[in-house]
Design a protein that fits this description.
Number of domains: 3
CATH topology of the largest domain: Porin
Distance between the termini: 47 Å
CATH class of the largest domain: Mainly Beta
CATH architecture of the largest domain: Beta Barrel
Order of helices and strands: HHEEEEEHEEEHEEEEEEEEEEEEEEEEE
Shape: globular
Strand content: over 45%
Radius of gyration: 22 Å
Low-confidence stretches: 1-34, 356-360
Largest sheet: 8 strands, antiparallel, barrel
Strand order of the largest sheet: 1-2-3-4-5-6-7-8
Mean pLDDT: 86
Structural class: mainly beta
C-alpha cells in the first residue's frame, strides 16, 4: 500500500517548488525604487503545452504553468509545474522544476525565448510502472521558441526537450505557449499592524482590490468506484482567490489527502462568483479545472483531467474572517472517478478597499505574511523498525502571524531523492508556532513549532525548534532541528530526526 501511495504525491512537490523559487528567492530583486512603503514588483506567468513521446507506451500530454521574476534585463528565474490532461493513462503524474528564462526582442512585436530548467516528478499507472515512466524522478527540460507580442501578452511556439533520468521519457516535441505579464504591491514586514498613510491607502485601494486565503477540510465520497479503493478520501486544501470585479474571482487550489488515500492530490484553477445575501452571509460558486489523482489502480482519474464545480455558504465571523460549508461534485473528465464532496472552510479576506470601493472610512492596515523555502533532511530514518537511507526534500512554509510572538504555520515538503526505491515521497503539516519578540535592530530570533498532518504513510506529528537571522527587512535565513513521527493504517511506524535550512521572504499586504 505504501508503494502505491508514493505515486500520488507529485503535486505537493510541484506546488512547493513553483512557489518556493518565485517567492522567497527572487521577489526582492524585482522591487522598484519608490519612496513609498508600497513596492511594485513584476513577474510573468507562462502557460505552455506539449505532447511527449513515451518509449513503448502511450504519449503523455503535459500542460505547464510557470512563474518567472526578472533579475536582469531580459533574464528571469522562476519555477513551474507540468501535469497531464487528456492523453494516456497517467492521472496523478506531476513534475516540478526551477530554472532560468531569457526573453529578447528581435524587432517590433517579435520576441525570442529560451529556457532551461531541472526538477523532479513521478507518476504512472502503478508503482512498478511509475519506476519505468519516471525513473529516478529527476529531469531536465529545455525550450527554444519565437513569440508575437500583442496587447501586453505574448503567444508563440517552439521546440522543447524533456528527459527523465533512467526512464522511458526522453523526447523532443513542438511546444506552444502564452506569456502573461503582471504587477503587484507589497509593503515591509516590519510595518504589519500599522495603518497606511493616506497616499498609500488610496493607491492600494485603486490598484490591489480583494483577495482571499482559504483552508478547507474536504471529503470526497466516491460514486460507483471501479478501481480497488472505495472509501472516502479526506483532504486538506489551500486556495488563493483574487477578485477581477467586485464579485467575480479567479482561484488556484491545491489539495492533498490526509486520510483515506494519504497524499492523493490535485491542482486546480478556475473562476467563481459571489452573492451578498445578508450582512453576514455570502454565497459562492466556483468551477475548477486541472489535473490530479493517485495510482489509477486505486482511483481512476484517467489521463488526469479533473472538473470540480462547488457551492459554499460563508458566515462572517469578523470583517476579515469567515467560515463556510460547501458541497460539490468532483469528476475525472476521461476516467471513471466520480465524487460527491462536502467540506468546511476558513477564509481570511484581504481587502485593500472598502466594499464600496472608496477606500473605506478607516485606512487599510498592513497584514504580515512570511513564506519560507525549506531544505529538509530526514536522518536516522526508520520505517517498520528498519533503518533506511536519509531522505532529502524541498519544502514551502507559509506563516500567518497572530501576534508578534505567535503564528500559524502551514508546511509541505516533497523529496527529490527516492524513498524505499520509489520516487514521490511527500508530507503536509500545519499547527502553531511561537517566536521571540524582536526589538528594533535585533537580528536573531529563536522559534519553535508543533504541527500535525500526514505523510505517504498516514497521520503524523512534527515538532521543531530553531534560530532565525534577519538579513534585511524582507529576507532572513534559519536553521532548525526536530522530530517527525507517522503511522500507516497497517501500523507501520515512520520516525526520523530532521535538520531544516530555511530562506524567508517576509512582506505585508494592505488589508481592512
Amino acid at each position: 500500500m505504501l508503494l502505491i501511495r508514493s505515486t500520488a504525491s507529485r503535486a505537493a512537490s510541484g506546488a512547493l517548488m513553483a512557489a518556493s523559487l518565485a517567492l522567497p528567492c527572487t521577489l526582492a530583486l524585482a522591487q522598484s525604487n519608490e519612496s513609498s512603503n508600497l513596492r511594485r514588483s513584476e513577474a510573468r506567468l507562462v502557460l505552455d503545452y506539449q505532447t511527449v513521446r513515451v518509449q513503448g507506451d502511450s504519449a503523455i500530454d503535459l500542460a505547464g504553468l510557470h512563474l518567472y521574476t526578472p533579475v536582469a534585463e531580459g533574464i528571469s528565474v522562476g519555477a513551474g509545474l507540468l501535469a497531464p490532461l487528456v492523453s494516456g493513462q497517467y492521472g496523478g503524474f506531476m513534475a516540478a522544476s526551477v530554472g532560468v528564462r531569457g526573453r529578447f526582442r528581435l524587432g517590433g512585436p517579435v520576441v525570442a525565448v529560451a529556457a532551461l530548467s531541472a526538477g523532479g516528478g513521478a507518476g504512472g499507472r502503478s508503482p512498478e510502472h511509475a519506476k519505468k515512466l519516471s525513473g529516478s524522478g529527476s529531469f531536465v527540460r529545455g525550450q527554444l521558441g519565437l513569440g508575437y507580442e500583442t496587447r501586453g501578452f505574448t503567444v508563440g511556439a517552439g521546440v522543447s526537450a524533456l528527459k527523465f533520468r533512467r526512464s522511458l521519457i526522453d523526447s523532443r516535441q513542438l511546444n506552444v505557449f502564452l506569456d502573461l505579464p503582471f504587477t503587484y504591491l507589497t509593503g515591509p514586514y516590519a510595518a504589519r499592524g500599522q495603518a497606511l498613510p493616506a497616499a498609500d491607502d488610496q493607491r492600494a485601494a485603486r490598484e490591489m482590490g480583494e483577495s482571499m486565503l482559504s483552508f478547507s477540510l474536504d471529503n470526497y465520497q466516491q460514486r460507483d468506484p471501479r478501481p480497488s479503493h472505495a472509501g472516502t478520501v479526506r483532504t486538506g486544501e489551500f486556495q488563493f482567490s483574487h477578485f477581477l470585479t467586485r464579485d467575480v474571482f479567479w482561484f488556484a487550489n491545491f489539495a492533498s489527502a490526509y486520510a483515506g488515500l494519504p497524499t492523493y492530490n490535485q491542482l486546480l484553477g478556475g473562476l467563481g462568483a459571489r452573492w451578498h445575501v445578508a450582512p453576514t452571509w455570502k454565497l459562492y460558486a466556483q468551477l475548477g479545472v486541472g489535473s490530479g489523482g493517485y495510482a489509477p489502480e486505486q482511483i481512476d482519474t484517467g489521463p488526469g483531467l479533473l472538473v470540480y464545480p462547488k457551492l459554499s455558504a460563508e458566515y462572517a465571523l469578523s470583517p476579515t474572517l469567515g467560515v463556510a460549508v460547501s458541497a460539490g461534485y468532483l469528476t475525472a473528465g476521461k476516467g471513471s472517478s466520480r465524487n460527491a464532496t462536502y467540506g468546511l472552510t476558513l477564509t481570511r479576506h484581504l481587502r485593500s478597499r472598502g466594499d464600496g470601493g472608496d477606500g473605506g472610512a478607516a485606512p487599510a492596515r498592513y497584514e504580515g505574511l512570511r513564506i519560507t523555502l525549506l531544505h529538509q533532511s530526514d536522518t536516522q530514518l526508520r520505517y517498520r523498525d528498519v533503518e533506511r537511507p536519509a531522505l532529502h526534500m524541498l519544502g514551502l512554509q507559509i506563516d500567518m502571524p497572530v501576534s508578534d510572538r505567535w503564528y500559524l504555520p502551514l508546511q509541505a515538503s516533497a523529496a527529490y531523492t527516492s524513498y524505499l526505491g520509489y520516487p514521490g515521497y511527500a508530507e503536509i503539516f500545519g499547527g502553531v508556532g511561537v517566536q521571540t519578540q524582536l526589538a528594533p535592530g535585533e537580528r536573531w530570533q529563536p522559534f519553535a513549532q508543533l504541527m500535525v498532518g500526514a505523510n505517504v504513510h498516514g497521520k503524523g506529528g512534527k515538532a521543531s525548534a530553531g534560530l532565525r537571522y534577519l538579513l534585511d527587512d524582507r529576507l532572513a535565513v534559519s536553521l532548525s532541528g526536530g522530530r517527525i513521527e507517522a503511522r500507516s493504517a497497517g501500523g507501520g511506524r515512520y520516525t526520523a530526526n530532521n535538520v531544516v535550512l530555511g530562506l524567508d521572504y517576509r512582506f505585508a499586504v494592505p488589508t481592512r
